[in-house]
């Protein structure tokens, strides 16, 4: 039995759901829809079954270490290996959120960065040579979004180790806790720092896995209408899923930061967001 298996995190709704739908239609293998909440995930699977697709389901909360372990054990026993991993699960506190900033920073880094990294590292031994990893980033992951040049240099250093990157992300959360994040040049958005961290990890992982032929990329899917944006956005989840799916099936290279129009952009170049009528267009 061919071991072509794809796993998508946080795929009970939004972009992740659309990625599973697109993979079910285009990927020659088994597609896992996963979700932290079993009921939400199973009903999402049912929805896809109604329109003729047949995803498999497994519960997975990427912030839960035991859950991650048991998911990896399950995949190991059932399939031995996977070919495609799409790290999609993520959270965003919108500007009108009332939670304290320190809480927002802790949570956002914990889910978008730390859990993504820990889950990827846990499942890495099961990713087969020639496999593909796609990290769902954002326009917020562009390095130019961090005001401090010193911090930008730390993030982009090719000598940065994973431990150092984790420490850097931890120092951001501590700076927010102490009210020093703005003064130290992190900027005002935990979401930006979480996605910059995801991009830094993507390029690091690409360098590490290059010899195994495993392709690692990150992608800004566009401003996607979903619960995260309270329905705002300029593209449907299906439209936002096009390039993540392409990178999972036929990437044109690795270590790329792909923009929502499908073109790779330099991570440390100028801010690629477009301006409409003198204002930045809304792209998360
Ligand atoms: N929407 C945009 O404009 C936009 C733009 C750029 C990038 N993105 C990125 O695209 C990805 C998907 O976002 P979306 O717009 O589809 O948002 P969404 O509709 O809010 O979906 C987010 C998904 O992540 C899941 N999730 C959250 N925490 C999780 C955890 N600990 N373990 C497992 N799953 C978890 C959610 O599960 P629950 O249903 O249980 O909450 C949900 O399935 C995110 O990484 C986001 O940052 C979105």
TrEMBL record:
E.C. number: 1.1.1.184
Domain of life, per lineage: Eukaryota
Enzyme class: oxidoreductase
InterPro entries: CBR1-like, NAD(P)-bd_dom_sf, SDR_fam
Keyword NADP: yes
MF annotations from Gene Ontology: carbonyl reductase (NADPH) activity
UniProt keywords, alphabetically: NADP, Oxidoreductase
SUPFAM superfamilies: NAD(P)-binding Rossmann-fold domains (SSF51735)
Pfam families: adh_short
Cleaved signal peptide residues: none
Family assignment from sequence similarity: Belongs to the short-chain dehydrogenases/reductases (SDR) family.
Name of the protein described by the UniProt record: carbonyl reductase (NADPH)
Species in which this protein is naturally found: Diatraea saccharalis
Organism classification: Eukaryota, Metazoa, Ecdysozoa, Arthropoda, Hexapoda
């Amino acid at each position: 039995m061919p071991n072509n298996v794809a796993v998508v995190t946080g795929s009970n709704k939004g972009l992740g759901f659309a990625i599973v739908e697109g993979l079910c239609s285009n990927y020659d293998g088994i597609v896992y829809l996963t979700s932290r909440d079993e009921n939400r995930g199973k009903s999402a699977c049912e929805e896809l079954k109604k329109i003729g697709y047949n995803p498999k389901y497994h519960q997975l909360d990427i912030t839960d270490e035991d859950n991650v372990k048991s998911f990896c054990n399950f995949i190991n026993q059932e399939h031995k290996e996977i070919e495609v991993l799409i790290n999609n699960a993520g959270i965003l506190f919108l500007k009108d959120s009332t939670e304290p900033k320190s809480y927002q920073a802790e949570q956002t880094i914990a889910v978008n960065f730390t859990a993504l990294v820990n889950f990827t590292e846990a499942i890495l031994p099961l990713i087969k040579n020639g496999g593909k990893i796609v990290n769902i980033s954002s326009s917020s992951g562009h390095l130019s979004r961090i005001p401090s040049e010193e911090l930008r240099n730390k993030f982009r250093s090719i000598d940065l180790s994973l431990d150092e990157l984790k420490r850097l992300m931890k120092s951001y959360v501590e700076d927010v806790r102490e009210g020093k994040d703005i003064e130290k040049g992190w900027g005002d958005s935990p979401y930006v720092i979480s996605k910059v961290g995801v991009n830094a990890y993507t390029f690091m992982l690409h360098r590490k896995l290059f010899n195994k032929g495993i392709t690692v990329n990150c992608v800004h899917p566009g401003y996607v209408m979903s619960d995260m944006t309270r329905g705002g956005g300029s593209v449907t989840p299906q439209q936002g899923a096009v390039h993540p799916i392409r990178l999972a099936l036929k990437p044109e290279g690795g270590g790329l930061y792909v923009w929502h129009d499908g073109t790779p952009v330099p991570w440390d170049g100028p801010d690629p967001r477009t301006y409409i009528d003198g204002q930045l267009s809304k792209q998360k």
